[in-house]
Amino acid sequence: MLGENQSTCNAVIGSANYDIGHVFSTGGGGIASLNSPCTSNKARGVTGQSNPIGDPFDIDYVAHEMGHQYGGNHTQNNNCNRAASAAVEVGSGITIMGYAGICAPDVASNSIAMFGGYSMQEMAANITIGNSSTCPVTTPLTNQPPTANAGPDRTIPSSTPFILTGTASDPNGTASLTYSWEQMDNAVATQPPQPTNTDGPAWEPLLPQNTPVRYMPNLPAVITNTTPTWEVLSSVTRDYTFRLTVRD
Fold it and tell me: Other CB atoms closer than 10 Å to residue 212's CB: what's the count?
């Protein structure tokens, strides 16, 4: 269907009249050409499911495959079509470009409705300086982007809960800002994460919150002295790299 959709879109719509094409079906799974908007492969995207309705289809499949078209690679650390450079999420992954529910051990049955920070970095590079940067019509916005500050590097004791705290500024005000902290370590690591892992992801991405503060692990787990499967403190010396993404 990839080639058929490309030919059909060009013939019916006209290649000069669209930037990206995608076809839906009741077949199984999906596939798409990476970094393809604005190129000769811009309609090579397919998403299919026997019951193509609701978030399990729209988020887990359609947005995922369109994410590939815009330049996003798989983000799961598990060895199921892993993309080494982007494998920053624990287990199956949980954001749109992960494999939640289909790549055991699974973080969850379905993805959360969020592109991760690394995915947005890949897509931004593609549409600004990459294959898909050749055909945009740029429209100025009155709303200005926020500026994020994740704060300085820290050294902390092993096996000790900690808090990530960032800040943000926005010329239009900060009331509407949301924040998400995500780990950016992509080395292959045992999953679910273990306290003895010396590299790789150990912290599950969460949906954006209205606070720049994240408890590591979550506060209820700290209070009850329990260890969440996908939020694991290190018992050995290692580095963590975290990204603070601020959305407006």
Answer: 22
Report how far residue 11's alpha carbon sits from residue 87's, in angstroms, rounded to the nearest whole number: 38
Angstrom distance (rounded) from CA 77 to CA 91: 5
Question: What is the CATH number for 39?
Answer: 3.40.390.10
Instruction: Give me the pLDDT at residue 203, please.
Output: 99
Burial profile 103-136: b = 16 or more Cβ within 10 angstroms, e = fewer:
beebbeebbbebbbbbbbbbbeebbeebbbeeee
Which residue in 126, 168, 139, 134 sits closest to 151, CA to CA? Answer: 168
Say how many C-beta atoms besides its own lie within 10 A of residue 69's C-beta: 25
Report d(CA 83, CA 153) in Å as an integer: 27
Q: What pLDDT digit, counting tens, does each position of 103-144 carry? A: 999 999 999 999 999 999 999 999 999 999 999 888 999 999
Q: Is residue 159 included in any domain, yes or no?
A: no
Q: pLDDT tens digits for 8-33?
A: 999 999 999 999 999 999 988 899 99
Expressed as residue numbers, the domain containing 86 is 2-133
CA distance 39 to 24: 20
Q: Which pair of tokens denotes residue 63?
A: 């947005």
Q: Residue 196 domain-assigned?
A: no
CB proximity list for 223: less than 8 A, separation 6 or greater: none
